[in-house]
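seq as requested:
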Amino acid sequence: MYKILGLCIFAFVLPVQADVTRTLKVCWENEAKPPFLMFSSKTEPYGIMVDVVGTVFKENGYTLEHIIQPWKRCLHSIKNGKVDLVPNASYKLQRTEFSRYSYPVYETNIALFYKSKRFDSPPQFLSQVDLTSYKVGGISGFNYSFVHPDVNIDVGAKSREHLVKKLIAERVDFALLQVEVLNYLAKQNKVDITSLDYVPFPDKKSKAYHVIFSKKTNDSETLKILFNQTFLDMKHKGVIDKIKEKYM
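struct tokens:
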């Protein structure tokens, strides 16, 4: 069945693949998300997701133009058709009005970080409602649609580093962050988490991330199918694991 599906998709996207001079505009958020997105300079992104997206489209004859903007501007740009795709997007129903979602490319573990000395033992939360008496810190522009509406979430932090500082200063009780990203930042000495610990976020243990394609791009459905098919093929052949090993 998979072979038949692959042949059908190949036949469908062949006219697009023939346009080898085509350049796709990719918008990357300017907030690093290591090891998935990092920057060697203000205009040069690198990391797992950069390599995955680049390898997929290079395989199909495309070149990429990297545009780096704040996350909200990336979403505004894809909505208005100024860019063709935006990687590292979590699912939000509102975004499906102007974009098409790829298959999940990776997942991260969602956790509540806290200052160890504030609790005699790790706090336990059976549901998100148990968090209503606490102040939870988030980051401006990030997707928190999965958080219960009664949870008091402060999204005043401008970055992950800023949010960690707020947590250590006890301006919030917990910081909602991705375990893998924060650990990588700590390895790079970007944040100090030696005084912190974490517990899983209730009702939402992990979060999937996708590439979204602008519906204003004429062949966005074809690009999405092309990306999905090539990504799954690369995953099957072990290419994705090799890219991850490069950074992990």
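The domain at 109-206 is CATH 3.40.190.10 (D-Maltodextrin-Binding Protein; domain 2).
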